Amino acid sequence: MSDLNTAGNLEKVLKAGHIGVTSECGPPRGSDAEEVKKKGALIRDYVDAINVTDNQTAMTRMSSLAACIHLKIMGIEPVLQMVTRDRNRVALQSDILGAASFDIPNMLCLSGDHQSFGDCAQGQNVHDLDSMQLVQTVRYMRDEGKFLGGDAIKRPPKIFVGAAANPFADPFEIRVPRLAKKIACGAEFIQTQCIYNLDKFKEWIRRANDRGLTEKTFIMAGMTPMKSVGMAKYMKKRVPGMDVPDEIIARLSGVPKDKQAQEGINICVEHIQELKELKGVSGFHIMAIEWEEKVPEIIERAGLYPRPVI
Amino acid sequence: MIIAQKKPLEEIIDEVKDFNRLLILGCNECVTVCEAGGKKEVEILASALRMYFINKGDEKKIDEKTLERQCDHEYLEEIRNKIDDYDAVVSLACGVGVQFAAETYLTTPLIPGVNTVCLGANEDRGLWTERCQACGSCVLARTGGICPVSRCAKRVLNGPCGGSTNGKCEINKDLDCAWQLIIDRLKALNKMDDYEKIAPIKDWSTDRAGGPRTVTREDVKI
Description:
The complex is a heterodimer of chains A (310) and B (222).
Chain A: H1 9-15, E1 20-25, H2 33-43, E2 49-52, H3 64-73, E3 78-83, H4 89-101, E4 106-110, H5 131-143, E5 160-165, H6 175-185, E6 189-194, H7 198-210, E7 218-223, H8 229-238, H9 246-253, H10 260-276, E8 283-286, H11 295-301
Parallel strand pairs in A: 1-2, 1-8, 2-3, 3-4, 4-5, 5-6, 6-7, 7-8
Helix pairs in contact in A: 6-7, 9-10
Chain B: E1 2-6, H1 9-16, E2 21-27, H2 30-33, H3 39-55, E3 61-67, H4 73-76, E4 88-91, H5 95-104, E5 110-112, E6 114-124, E7 127-132, H6 148-151, E8 168-169, E9 172-176, H7 178-188
Parallel strand pairs in B: 2-3, 2-4, 4-5
Antiparallel strand pairs in B: 1-6, 6-7, 8-9
């Protein structure tokens, strides 16, 4: 895993053996780039790269690629998230080249939430490729220097390729085999679903370690601080594939309402500290949804600051 | 078989209100089995329309006929000598039958009386579910006989996605996750090793993406 394929910072940090840190920034539901820039400026010094989500929960937003370009121009390294829901292989390859033309060095390949969750429930979905096939596509374009159609690409994209993993979705027994498949497709880093159930996550990592998978990819543990007990209950009940143990809800309920947000941050910091020591965890992906201002505090208190300079 | 669903009566009324002589034309194939467009449904629709228009003081001639098949020119010929008695035909066949009827009777307006829903089967009394999207390149040999193209909301070929919860799909708690079913079946077949085989990027040119599809068989041509 030591050779560098991109000029990106995230790849360098992870391959140098440091614990990597990424966070995310959701583009606005409008065309004001200042919102993206503000979020980026808040967290830029605390992370190695910033994910930019792609119409998450199928709500129409400013395009991920455009938002990535705004960050890149500020000197911030983006991770371009791309879902297979909205684009066919022509558009996907085209956007990959567009991203590479701005030297955006990272991509996260996803299938995307179903459009029925968003504001265009009557729309078509595409799913010409699935997320694993998108990983294969980016790797093929980079490593073979070719389009899927076989023609040579002038200046192939130099992109560090990631995929998502949800250790908590069902059925649990195929969660590690599924990770193995993503790695076999070429996923160089993995960002996981938000982790609240540490025991289950540890079991997933143990099985991944046993198969040697953590030697083949960098696993970045997904972390989302809870803002309130209401959010915890909502995530437990309403968000597909989310595992929020009752202890988390009990702990948040146990403090006064005005202290719940701080307690949520405390839980997040404690979880990072605990998982930092776990074999097979190479980094953290902190998704503080519309709460980006708390990312620096979480990273500092978790002992992940300052970020290595390579 | 092809699964269809009756259109709302109001929609049909709106389409036929300006015609005076109507033929309600059923089909004795799939739409009869799925209880959307057979002889029984022709009778029900014809009665409902007669009642509606009589109540409006607008008595129309509304006749009934059910053909063996509407997706077959031979059977459609059975109404040739009567077709000019009608201003319009309400066909309760699937979209194929409606179009075949329209092609056969060029000057007669054809109005669909059902919505064609999918290729599926009768799973339980009053429940019909999708099983196939006619993608033109069957993957069932590799997916334990369960189709991810028609039964996964994201037609994920390397699934399940992260939204699979307790065996159900993220879009609907009553909908089975196709990939859970695939895994259950691979287990039953003792073929879980197949799960890790990567499904290659699919050639969708045999799907609707490639344009209207045809099958040509030289060996059966006359």
